[in-house]
Design a protein that fits this description.
Structural class: alpha+beta
Strand content: 5-15%
Shape: globular
Number of strands: 4
Distance between the termini: 44 Å
Radius of gyration: 19 Å
Mean pLDDT: 86
Low-confidence stretches: 5-25
């Protein structure tokens, strides 16, 4: 009896470990080519699309201090992303909003969200389905570049589009 119970526990553990990896068809779920509702962004791992998107587009747009307004350069980069996404209709994206280290945690999370939303809204205006886009704000919690200089701060005031 104990051996059977142990075998069941091992099997369940193995299956749940495999189920935590979200890729390919597991991401898609709403019937319209959009995100599966139970996908947790924290569980996502890079795919071939992640690297291809990085190689073929400028996947990061930058913002000035204390702003979520898109510059002309950011709009051009997002237009390139939208073109790539239109050519690859099964690809889903997460837009990660970030801030520099200045400001409170709460303020920067809200600003990072506004930055990610600005990029998302632009992609939608370019014809990309909202069902294909999720956002997350890291605020100042996951900087791209460590440091307390204007150069580091400028690189962290961003929205990064990651493809899956």
């Amino acid at each position: 009896m104990l051996k059977k119970l142990l075998a069941v526990i091992c099997t369940v553990s193995l299956l749940s470990a495999c189920a935590s990896q979200k890729d390919g068809a597991d991401l898609y779920g709403n019937g319209n080519g959009g995100w599966n509702d139970d996908v947790n962004i924290a569980d996502l791992q890079d795919t071939a699309n992640t690297q291809r998107f990085k190689d073929e587009t400028n996947n990061v747009v930058y913002f000035v201090l204390d702003s979520s307004d898109l510059s002309a350069e950011a709009k051009a980069d997002l237009a390139g992303q939208a073109k790539w996404l239109a050519e690859n209709p099964r690809v889903l994206v997460v837009i990660e909003g970030r801030c520099d280290e200045r400001g409170t945690r709460e303020y920067n999370l809200a600003l990072g969200e506004r930055r990610a939303m600005a990029a998302r809204s632009y992609l939608i205006a370019q014809g990309i389905s909202p069902d294909r886009i999720r956002i997350i704000s890291y605020g100042k919690e996951k900087p791209v570049v460590l440091g307390s200089s204007e150069e580091a701060w400028a690189q962290n005031r961003s929205a990064t589009t990651v493809a899956y």
